[in-house]
Task: structure prediction
Amino acid sequence: MKLAFVVYYEHRNTQVMEMLTALNIDYYTRWENLKGKGHGTEPHIGIGSFGRLNSALMIAFEDEAPLSALIDAINSANDTARRTDERIRLFQVPLERVV
Result:
């Protein structure tokens, strides 16, 4: 099992939700209005000239196939990003147990 955290600039929310729907991934936990800064990107802290915020999803995968499909979809979506900080990020970690 794997756990994926998907982090993205909030204006891409509709695109990310449509991506999940198209992939039949109807299970996730979503956090909104997140602040942060990535390598080589501007901060997204919700104030001043850095008024952007992020959203994040946590998705547990029992099978590799939907995770691989999501990774492919994110890579395709990132091809249209004009700036590095507009890319959708996926962080994958092992998932040992769900209770």
Observations:
- Helices lie at 13-22, 64-78.
- The chain is about 25% helix and 30% strand.
- The CA atoms of residues 44 and 50 lie 5 Å apart.
- The chain has one domain: 2-94.
